[in-house]
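Lab notebook, bench 4. The sequencing result for the construct came back, and we need a structural model before the next group meeting so we can plan mutations. Quick request posted to the team channel:

Model the 3D structure of this chain.
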Amino acid sequence: MEACRKLEEVLERIEKACQRAGRKKEEVTLLGATKTVPPNVIKRFYECGLKVFGENRVQEFLKKYEDLSGLSIEWHFIGRLQSNKVKYIIDKVKLIHSLDRDSLLEELKKRASRLGIKANVLIEVNVGNEETKGGVKPEDLEAFFEKVLNAKDLEVLGLMCIPPYEEDPEKVRPYFAKMREFKEKLEEKFGVSLPHLSMGMSSDFEVAVEEGATIVRIGTLLFGERG
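Done. Here's the predicted structure in token form:
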């Protein structure tokens, strides 16, 4: 089955990258990034053993969440999240990867508190200081992290980034290394353990794994070019 073969290939590449870095393959979660991927294709990959999927758009996610409600999928939200859409997803996803501003933080706190749940979040860092991308600026990260850490209805589990695109994945390595440093500094300064670094996509995930990624977000390599 084509889906199983593709999944196996990506998992093998993750395992080899782990070996090169002296890590265990169990330390890395493969997330299927399923923007524009139809439910029947997601189901095929689920049947091959992929259990974690990430969506970028709230409306598209809600439709798939309903269509695939019979499966034990672990859903993550990996796209830019508008504050007015938080209420639709907060109790449906295991992890939100893209917390990056005060207004979103306030809305997440409010909605989690109302539902009596703890929302798991990652802080998105604009590691390349790109105007066109979301994410907290590196120089603002500590102050923002402290706010999130003090929000009793949220559980901050780590950091996420989308580095500048480069043809050569080696050129992205410094950004991933910087993210690992950010995580380690925060752990040291605030005396916390941050289990996750969500970084690396189809073009550069092996380098990300070598630099400490714990979640890689793979779309094109698994599902082909879409949308």
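The chain has a mean pLDDT of 97.
Will bring this to the meeting.
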